Each structure stands twice: as structure tokens, then as C-alpha cells.
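task queued by scheduler; priority normal; single chain, no ligands, no partner chains; default sampling; output format set to C-alpha cells
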Amino acid sequence: RTVLGVPVGVLLAGHAGWRSTMWLVTGLGAVALVGLAGLLPPVPADPPVPARARLAAVADREVAPIVGVSFLAAVASLGLYTYLAPVLASAGGVTEVGPYLWAWGIGGVVGSLVAGPLVDRTGKAAALVGGVLVTVAVAQVLLPLLASAVLPGAAAALVLWGAAGWALQVPQQHRLLALRDDRGTVALALNNSALYLGSAVGSALGGLALAAGAEGYALPWAAGGVAALGLVLHLWAGRRSRHAARVGTLGGYEHS
């Protein structure tokens, strides 16, 4: 949706007006509704999850840091994406943002396709999350610098940022299911909620910053800082988990 839908919508709006984009979305929604009604077989619903179980997932000491990383990553990535046009205009004088949206979207498609096989092949989901967060932060910090110097460099930074940003949730979901297989649905739902909340918070903060007089080129640096904060949380949570595992192992030896 965000990866390809936004560039297509911008392209269509530029040629036929913004209402045409809304009509396209409406038409696609109607086609999807008809397809689901006619082709989707009956799917038995899972039993409802009690509110106490949902709240327990929020307070889970292993789940909460992972969800927190997803929230911060969404603030940094999806929140900044909302203001890509003013960022590029401020940093490099870009007036036609469409090609840069495509660059970010192409990167997102590549990242989404590569992340799953990479997790399956290496089995190192936590390490992949760390690498993704570093990549997002570096790409965002470099974006205004490259846009002011050479615009193809800005497109390369956007491809890198898009690929890393959309690759993140595959290892994140893998880790949540590995931690809480018995409550995987609740943990994944909480993680998805954190993504949408992070996107909304990031967009709101970016809008407030611009309204307060901040220059557009400064937003990627702030977003990169948020991504770095997510990396710190990720590393801290991993260190705490390893420490708890060592303590548990030593305790087992003492009682054996």
C-alpha cells in the first residue's frame, strides 16, 4: 500500500487531479470486496482474547521492548516519509517528488522480499534488526546531505532507507512468535498497533516541527536520532535477555 500506492497516487493526481486518486482507491476497494465475498472460503474465528491477556502482553518484559523498537522505527521511518516532499525541497530544491517516492518504494519491495529468506537462512533475527536500524539511521542522516550535493545520491539513500524500513517487521514478528508462541496472535496485534501509532506520532511531530519554523532538511536528522534510540533499546533488551539466560543457567546448576 505505502510502497507502491503512494507513488502511483501522486503520479495519477499530477495528471488527473487528486480526486482521481480517491476514485481509484474506491474502485480497488470495491473490486477487493467483491473478490472476498465471492472467493474467500469460510474461515473459523479464533476464540476472543480476554482483555487481561491483551494487557499482559503490554506488560511482558520480553515482548514490550520488541514492540517499543517497532514503535520507534515507525516514528522514524513512516513518520518522516510523510514529509518527504518538503525535506527534498528544502535540502535540494526538488519540485518533482515522484521519482524519489518510487526510489523509496522500490527499496521497500526489495527489502520485503529479501528479509524473510534472510531470516530463514541465518536464523539471526535479532542481529538483522540491529543492522536494519543502523541502516535506517545512516540513510536518513545522509539524505539531506546528498540531496544538497547530488540528487542521484539522495535517490540511493531513499532506496536504502526504504529497503531497511520495510525489512524490519519480518525479523520483529519472527522474534515475537519465537518468544510467545502461545500468545503469538496477541503479540503480533500489539506490534502492528505500535506501527500505526508510531506512524501517527511521527507524522504529528514532523508537522509540529515544520509549523514551529523548523527547516525541512532537519527532519531526517531528527528521524535518524529516533532510529538510533530504537537501536539503543534493541541492544539493551538483548543484553538484558542474555543476562537473564545466564542467571537462569547458573541457578539451574546450583539446584542440580
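post-processing summary
- The domain at 51-254 is CATH 1.20.1250.20 (Growth Hormone; Chain: A;).
- The two ends are 54 Å apart (CA to CA).
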